Amino acid sequence: MSRSAEFKPRNRTARAASVVGNPATARLDDAVGNCFPGLELDVRNLDGRFFPGLLFRIVAAPLTPLPGTPADEGGARLVSVCWQNDPMLPERSPEPWVQALLSALSGDAGNTLSVGRWYLQWVEQGGKRISMIQPNGQPYDGKPVWRMVRSLVPGLPLRIGLVRRDAPVPQPVIELHGYRRVYTTPDGVISPVFEPGELTQSLCNPWQHDFRDCACYYWASNHPDVVMGQAKGPEVPGGDPQDATTALTYLDWLRRDRTPAGEVAAPDVRSAARPDQIDHFEINWRWQELNFVIGGREIADAYVPPKPGHAQPYKDAAELIAALENDLAPMEMTLALEYLYSLFSLHAPSEAPQDRWPTMRDDLMAVRQSLTIVAVSEMTHLRWVNQLLWELDRAGFYPPGKHYTPVVRHSHQGPVGLDGLHGPALRVFDFEAVDAYIRVERPGGPLDTAYARTVATLEQRGADGQHLYPRHLYELAAKIDSDGVQHWERFREMRRTLSTYRHARPLPYLRNVRLGSPKETAAALEAYEALQSDLRHAYAHEAAREFELAQQAIGRARKLMDVLNREAESLAARGIGVPFFSVP
Amino acid sequence: MGSVTTVPLASLKRRRAFEGPTEAHCFSTPHGTHALLVDGSRVYDVPGDFESRLQAAAREGRAAERDLISAFGLLDAEPAIGEHIALPTVNALALAVSEHCNLACGYCYADGGSFGSEPRHMPWEVAKAAVDGLLERVSEGGSASLAFLGGEPLLNRSVLRRTTLHAAALAAQRGIAMRFALTTNATVLNADDVDFLAQHGFAVTVSIDGEKELHDALRPTRGGTGSYERIVARLSSLLAAQKRKPVAGRPPLQVSARVTVTPRHTALRATLEHLIGLGFHSVGFSPSLSSRDPALQLSAGELEALLAQMIECAEAFEAHTLRGQPYPFSNMLAMVQELHRGTHRPLPCGAGAGYLGVSAEGDYSACHRFVGDPRAAMGSLLQGIDDAARAEWLAQRHVDTQEPCRSCWARYLCGGGCHHEVLNRGRVACDFIRGWLGHGLGAYVRIAEARPELLA
Known about the structure:
The structure holds two protein chains of two kinds. Chain A is of the alpha+beta class. Helix content of chain A is 36%, strand content 10%. Chain A has helices spanning 12-16, 44-47, 96-105, 108-113, 142-150, 209-212, 244-248, 270-273, 280-286, 317-344, 360-394, 431-441, 452-458, 471-482, 484-498, 522-543, 547-573; strands at 8-9, 54-59, 75-81, 118-125, 128-131, 157-164, 174-179, 226-228, 250-252, 292-294, 297-299, 514-515, 576-577. Chain B is an alpha/beta fold. Chain B has helices spanning 9-12, 50-60, 62-71, 124-137, 157-174, 191-199, 212-218, 228-240, 268-278, 300-322, 330-341, 387-397, 411-414, 419-425, 430-450; strands at 24-29, 32-37, 42-45, 92-99, 120-121, 143-150, 177-184, 203-207, 254-261, 282-287, 355-358, 363-365, 377-380, 384-385. Strand 1 (8-9) of chain A pairs antiparallel with strand 3 of chain B, so a sheet runs across the interface.
């Protein structure tokens, strides 16, 4: 017998047969109904009628109550005594418990319950009594009370105790016996005791109220916390403000003060930010004032995409492929290794001294995390460049006789287009290194423009106006291209964090690392070489669309990355840096 | 001891009553399992186990069926069809302007046109009085319709025309939307008639039974010769006139073919397509169930064969419809639309309700077939419409009081069958009707899935 009855109306009279009541979306087997409060129905509304003849509402005490609100508002509050049309309590029922309950509710008990503020005091089932009052004498709030009500089962005798909280003189608890209601029939039809609209009287309010925040944060997780302000004044290529202060200031996206005066840096922690954020009632009114955010920046006016770069496209696909293979992919690997080396040169947070530099532990955590993110980002770029290459091969742009081969190696010269900077170097993360990285990653700088020609090439159209290359390749290149600004900003942020220590010698946050020999770092280098090989296999498989084999190779590579990480950290803690560049 | 003659049990138990669920009817299509809920003629998709649960409930009785439907939340507190039928205003009349006919069709309900008495024409005074009474009853902004029947109405074309003009003028004065209809054998149609009918936007029904040989055998002239050639000669201008731009405020001329289906009709689809090919706006079949000549009424076995042929035509209709091609088979057109609307009624038609027949002498009857029949007399122009007779007629004919209708799932779609046929011959076509409706339900769902835009 099917549990889910799906009666779908077909013709006009079927559709018009309006069943006054809760909407079709309030079917429990169909719905996303939840209890925060819910998208289609609020399941908590079912439990308001857990006991026959009574209607409760589960009340959660507000965080900031209005003056004069009683302190003990939370709990399961009795709203009304309503036994007359309860399908569990038919007047002529032969069941003794039904008759007893009916006479209680239609008699003295019912009268008493109709005056004053009555709450559920306890429930008892299977010989176990659960109190709705905490050990300290305060009532439990709505949520735990609801959970306890939810734990009751139909089919077992149920006793409940009700107490009046606003009685001038303490009154005896009223005890009632019954059974927990079954909310639906076996076919999933909701009991007729629920009135039309009752299940949907509380619902999520996704795009206003709950967007600010809500109990499960589902909607609120979709909005930005901090964003960069709208760019004003001169910009560097790529659309970021030239003025570093503006470029680097993160604003609270929910700030109440939307004037220029309100464009101050967001506090670090939410509790500090909360007083200056728009409140729930405000977001219901003023949601239109929240700005769109594109590329991490607020856009208040009409969005103007950044001017396209004037980079010269490569002369043909062959030149593009050569640049990707020989310059760009190796460049990414180089950067990843340089940043990793710098990362290992930092003390672990646990190595921070206990007696001095009270913020060093947190600073190290922050900087390490940020540096890791940048390093991983370069590794992602390496994969994306490989993907560009194999997709170009699949699309037939490789010269005849030539095919995609994976590029998983570092470069032997400095980053493309760089002048005045010496070649790849593994550095500890001192201020010279930080500044070098900032210079190299700056907007308009060599890394920022490294992909400009690639993007320009892939964007080209032919004489017939059609794109020469498949669009997804252009998009992939554009993605790599736009990643750069974030690195620049991260390094600037790291510099700011570490500036606390800049005048101390030696730099207290650095391990004393020197470049090790291949022999003393053999385990690390072995792991590194092996994972290079696995990555090559993975990319080759993926290029051939052998996804399962690719996944297996990636899995192996990941395990080796773990090994490498542990080895490198342990070596660095002993003052030895891994000579990555000794592996071709 | 003498020999005992045993009679086969089957012949003893003549199952007239329908057995099976009375409150719903299940059917399936490639799109799933469905059910018609009898109350309100509501069509639903239903879960796969609904049918077996319904059968089980039906074995216990109607109340159990209703409980089952109610358990799914699908039973309204008030049934769609109540016991009482309110008496509506009579806003449609069929005038037997000529109780005289030039053909001698064997199955004629009017017994050769004169309903068993002397052939006569309806005098102008009677027609006028009928029209005046009709338009007096209908309020401003309402609508009324006038059908000219007989016999052969064009044999009294002067009264027909005069009545039409009078009704059109009076209706215009009163702000009433007036519709005209004509049922004719098309043997005496002339060019003036065509112009007249087109000008007033008539809905014309031509009685024509099929290809020449078949038609001539069934619808001979009084001299015994065929009528097909005469009709076809006149049809082309009438059918062509459908394309004329209608007069302002009037609907366009519409000419439909009506086939009385007899045991002689053995290739129904061919007949249908032949008539469609002639250019009719639509072609409809009317099974001959109660005929003056008993050889021309369909027996139970012939109805079974007829159902198969009808379904063949229905399948052709469905195939064309799904392809977006016209196939004006009016029985299917009407059925699909009515199922979509969820038409549900306690009666088969408007006879005695909003519709009355008027004899040449000015007597009212339930409809055009009951002219001169005391079983359905409903007053006269002189004495007025007999509302008491109408009320009693409607109460007695209510499908929930009829056997075997009251326990049949098709009752609110069928309504009990044509009163005239049932009173003269009884209900012989129930299986046919159920079979036809059952097929129609499936076709409706299939068409609704494939071409939802056809069903508003």
